[in-house]
Amino acid sequence: MYDLHVHSIYSDGSGEIDAIVRKAREANLEAIAIVDHSLEHPLGLTEKKARKRHIEIEEASAKYNIRVVEGIECGIKANGEIILPDFEFELILVSIHDPVPMDEYYRRIEMCLRNHDVDVLAHFHSTIFDAYDGRDIVRDKEIIDLLMENDVGLEINTAHHAPPSSVLEDCISRKIKYSIGSDSHSLSRVADVEWGFKMAKRFLKKGRSLL
Ligand SMILES: [Zn+2]
Ligand SMILES: [Zn+2]
């Protein structure tokens, strides 16, 4: 198992890099991705913070002998824009954090997937951001098509319990790329990914895990 969505003190998480990686090791994960929020977040990852985090990640990875992926989670803004600090990330997650009407919700994701080179769409239709109501089944399918066309992964997020199973059902017969993450902001939830792997086993047998 792996956990490809963890926030640290480098954005709004409470766990230090060393402690997060140690917890991942103790949980016997194969890999973990630290994906702090990007610059649109008040506590987001600046270039300077990304460089400092890089050193700590390398140290912790060697110390605990586990793969640690250096990532970032970008909120998708109007016109599908994302903001990134000047740094090479191994993993770029994108997600909607603004409470926008459903039409705008789809539009932002579509434009982002068309215009930016990203790796994973995180917590699609998260109930936490009220995006679940008013879903459009046809547009959900279009998002899945766009993910496939652009080889972007669909995240199963165990904090948001997203995406809803109806979206996963649409993926049953497709070779969709997917990723699983806890979206933990504290040490206690690092490696809390079992529900995600259970859902992947049930709905995404034909899919391809990101790791
Ligand atoms: Zn998020
Ligand atoms: Zn997150």
Q: Strand arrangement, largest sheet?
A: 1-2-3-4-5-6-7-8
CATH level 3 topology? TIM Barrel
* Strand elements, count: 8
Low-confidence stretches: none
The N- to C-terminal Cα distance equals: 9 Å
The second-level CATH architecture is Alpha-Beta Barrel
Helix share bin: 25-40%
C-alpha geometry:
globular
The profile of the biggest β sheet is: 8 strands, parallel
Q: State which percent range the strand residues make up.
A: 15-25%
- Average pLDDT, to the nearest integer? 96
According to CATH, what is the class?
A: Alpha Beta
Cofactors, ions, other ligands: zinc ion
Structural class: alpha/beta
The Cα radius of gyration reads 16 Å
Order of helices and strands: EHEHEEHEHEHEHE
Supply the number of structural domains: 1
Query: Can you count the helices?
Result: 6
CATH homology-level superfamily: Metal-dependent hydrolases
Assembly type: single chain
